Every structure is written in structure tokens, then in C-alpha cells.
Amino acid sequence: MGKLIFDMSGLYNTALNITALKAEIKQSAGENLTELFYLPSCQSTNTECMNVGSHGSVVLAEKQTAGRGRRGNNWHSPDSQNIYCSIGINKTIAAEYLGLMSLVVGICIVESLHSLGVDDASLKWPNDILLQGKKLGGVLIETKALSQDEFYLAIGFGLNINLTQQECDSIGQPAISLNQLHEVNFTRHQLLVALVSNILQQSMLFEVDSIDHLIEQFNRFDSFRGKQVIVKTRTEEIAGVTLGLERTGWLKVQTEQGVQSFSAAEISLRQRV
């Protein structure tokens, strides 16, 4: 079972009650939740979700031994200190729009945090969750084709909950943990209910005819919009200013060569100092 929740804040110090967690998510998400797998440890919740998950299933772990992020990066996954979760859904969507799903999930996470009073939470395209400009968490979606335009998605997300400053410093980029906030008046249990319910519902509801609304939502939380950035490809670094998103979810950047569009699979992005 879970261990410390927010020990530095001194607020809540209880273990996860999986039975109660499942019941509350079921009450909020209804029939969207079909089953919940709880694992004290696994290689990766996304791997488990791809292997044993099905439409509407949730995989929750206390520890990942081989957690991963975008572009094959390792995801720091110590025992019982954070949130490591994956949600499986079947989705009918054209392959060119699959990249939009990480935006849907990122928006769900930031909206859930805002609803619990974490007002500084924001997004960095394509899949980072930021707090006070530092990385709080991320989204990784892996897919398996079921038929033409039908996919099984393992929607993985992780959030730093109870890391020490030393652990944050070891991550390799500016990082932050929720326990570093002065006032946190919710538990990991409450946060999981909000996150899983919201992501289950919104990822199932999303259709391509709501792309314009999705991009408007993303723009509300986009911490890099209009900022000077460096786009790093496999072969070069390109300076520019972010202009927003294409309807496919690609990033538009004003560069010296004109407006260029980049896919999340091709680049990494950082703010220009």
C-alpha cells in the first residue's frame, strides 16, 4: 500500500485505500471505469496497461522500475512518493490526430490541479505539466492499432508528489514536487479521483470536430505561447517564437526562415534565455 503522501506539509500521511478509490472513481466516472489494477511495483504502468488493460481499465502503481517518458527518457519513479498511472481506452480517430490526445490529457491534469487550488499549474507542449515553471509531471501515450482509424491507447501520466529537493535536483531538468507548496489541502487519494475521472471521461468524449475548442483550452494553459524558444531537432537547433498549434497538434514557430511546424516526435523544446 501507499506510504507518505505530503510529509513535508504535515497534512496527510495515510495509505491509499484502493477499494474506496475505485468506488469514488466509479461514482464520478460511471461505467467509463471497467477495472482498476493496483500494483506495488511494475516496470511501467504503460507496459502493464498495454499487456493486460482493456477499454476503461486503470493501472496504478506505487513504483516503476523502468518508467519512461517521451523520446525514451527515463522517468524517476521512487516507491510510494508520486503518482504513476495509465488508463486504457479504445479510440476511433484518424492517425494524423492521435497527437491531440496528449493535449486532451494534459488539459485534464491542469484543470484537475486548478480545481484543487494549485493555480500555478500549466502546460508545456507537447506533454509536460509545469508548476512555477518547473516540471511537475508528464504524459506518455502509447498506441496499438486495432483496425483502420481504431486504436487502443495506453494513456500514461505521472506527477511528483512527495520528492525531496535533492531528488528534484537529480532529475536533470528544473523539477518540482507538490509537497514543496506551502499549502496543500488535498490528499493523493483525492487527486487521483479527480485525475482519473476527468481523463477517462474527456479522452473518451473527445472527437475531432472539437479541435478548435481543444486548442483554445490548450492556449489558456500554455506556458510557452508567444515565448522565445529553441527547437532542437536531431540535426540542428532553431530559434523562434511559438505561435500556437496546428489542427493536428503540431507546434507552429516563427523562425528566421518563416513559420515552421514541428511534430512532437521530431523535436525537443526549451525556452530561450
How is this fold's topology laid out?
Blueprint: H1 18-29, E1 35-39, H2 45-52, E2 57-61, E3 82-92, H3 100-115, E4 121-124, E5 128-131, E6 134-147, E7 150-160, H4 165-169, H5 188-205, H6 211-221, E8 228-232, E9 237-245, E10 251-255, E11 258-262, E12 268-271
Parallel strand pairs: 1-2
Antiparallel strand pairs: 2-3, 3-7, 4-5, 5-6, 6-7, 8-9, 8-12, 9-10, 10-11
Helix pairs in contact: 1-5, 3-5, 3-6
Q: How is this structure best described in words?
A:
By secondary structure, this protein is an alpha+beta fold. The protein folds into two domains: 204 residues, Bira Bifunctional Protein, Domain 2 (BirA Bifunctional Protein, domain 2, 2-Layer Sandwich); 44 residues, SH3 type barrels (Roll), CATH 2.30.30.100. A hairpin with a 2-residue loop joins strand 5 and strand 6. It is globular and about 55 Å long.
